[in-house]
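Continuing from the previous page of notes. For each protein in this section, the sequence appears first, followed by its structure tokens. Read the first protein now.
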Amino acid sequence: MFALLVAAAVAAPLPSAFDAGWHGEKVCTLLFDNPRMRAARCVFPPGGGHERHFHAAHWGYIVSGGTMRITTASGTVDRVLEAGGSWWSDGIAWHEAINIGTTTAVYVIIEPKDAP
């Protein structure tokens, strides 16, 4: 029975970054949504994080910086993120993050809907 539960948990699809939360609470608020794109504001207070989730291709902007511990299939890294920084990602199968700093980190993520 335990093996079946583990297999079911492994096979369960991951939520998108827009839908993933932290300890049952949403961390991203939808700002805009139309047939071509969607945008969300994601807030991570100290000690807060984002459960394991996937990302489609997206652009992100750091509104308020912080220090995040990010875990992917490749390992775990600590990143100091500066306000005003931005990034482009072609998407990621999964990652999870926790704010290990002392300030609240805030991002805006914009995801084109026609992106893979």
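Done with the first. The second protein uses the same format. Note its length before scrolling.
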Amino acid sequence: MPENPYITRTPPRAVGLLGGGVIGGGWAARFILNGVDVRLYDPAPNAVEYVQKMLANARRAYRRLTGVPLPIEGALTLADSVADAVRGVDLVQESAPERLDLKQELLATASRAAGPDALICSSTSGFRPSLLQAEMDHPECFLVAHPFQPVYMLPLVELCSGERTAPKMLDRAAAIFRAIGMHPLVVRKEVDGFIANRLGDAISRESLWLVHDDVATLQEIDDAVRYSWGLRRAVMGAYRMADGGEGMRETIEQWAFKWPWSRLTEKPNMDRAFLDKAAEQADALVKADPLDVPTVHKRDDLLVALLQGLRSQGYGPGETLARWEQGLRERAPLPQLHDGSGRLRMPTLAVPSDWIDGNGHVAESRYLQVCSDATGTLAHYIGIDAEYRSQSGAYYTLETHLCHLGELHAGDRIQVSTQVLGVDDKRLHLFHVITREGGERPVATGEQMLIHVDAGTKRSGPVKGDVRERLFGLARVHAQLPRPDRASASIRLPPSSVS
């Protein structure tokens, strides 16, 4: 079958944007950071300044989102008219306010000026595409491409064709949006609000009823969503957990519309034909998205990744996780001395599967994490707790050296022993040895130099009180141990034989 000439794996050369507000500015940022030139038409006097601000926000987010180098940025040009914005571009994206007459006028003008081959899309949140394409010269080139705010971050774009849209335009649009990092979802038939907004509207209606009836506040409603099924649906959707048709039938028969909990009481006919359709689609979902682990394991792994990401921001469910972990640390028994040698021993750790890199063994960054956790174990042993950190200070890493002596794989159980090599009022020198459980040969070592930072001045300052006494006491014990062979060894090449 010959390749569709409208399908591309690369972003378009240039796009014309009609409207540079919240949605249009988000489109501009996504396109520009993907190396696409943007011609913007927006009569507002501050349109360019607004888009530049949105672009700066997107740059900041993308630096945190990916370490892969981005292409050279596309150019942003302000056009004097709709015709100037759309002439010669590959894609036109209209993002004007939700007024049918305004959108129809802009799209009709764009269709005349852009020519018969330009793909023209609307960002409308709810108008059916057949209404929007009514006045266009080339309605076959038009469809809805509905994004979500912030457009430069959220990947979903709903694609919906009108009565006169050429089918090949859906394929062409999907390829363009995939090329700029989006997930195109084709809406099977025209419907007001498409898919995601209709779901959101149902939740919003019920939420406002709960507020109206004094059942909950807006804060309580947000917490109910983001601390529960909002997380689960974010990682797995709503119906993947059914595990196929039989599970879907059971879910519907057992739970669907059994209790009049919601103000939205209208329901579809739950006859045999509907159950068969739902079961068939659930089977298709499982077939299209096969898992190499049990579904419940995949769900849990995805939730772990999401919660750990939120923990790194210290917000919402991530803050709850961090607070729980801190409580566990503070309630944990003190670390034990290792086999009477005096070295501190971390609890045994099983290597998780997500620590594995493309070569099939533990990624280098995870060895650094293990050493950092071992340092945290020592801090707990000498009495550095939340009160000490807030009133006196904490140790911060200045330098770390890793030495890889073997390989670790998923499921390996590892232990870390830690030795204090040196200490003074401000500095702490540590050496970590990573071994498999029950083994003696190290698979890696890590050496760290840390500095004590005062909580008040945020500068280096002396370790204090009982923490100091406990640390110096441990250092005296460790001073009696043999110094590790690899401690303080510099990295060097043997003498070169090249003359």
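What the second structure shows: The chain has a mean pLDDT of 87. DSSP finds 16 helices and 15 strands in the chain. We return to this in next week's lecture.
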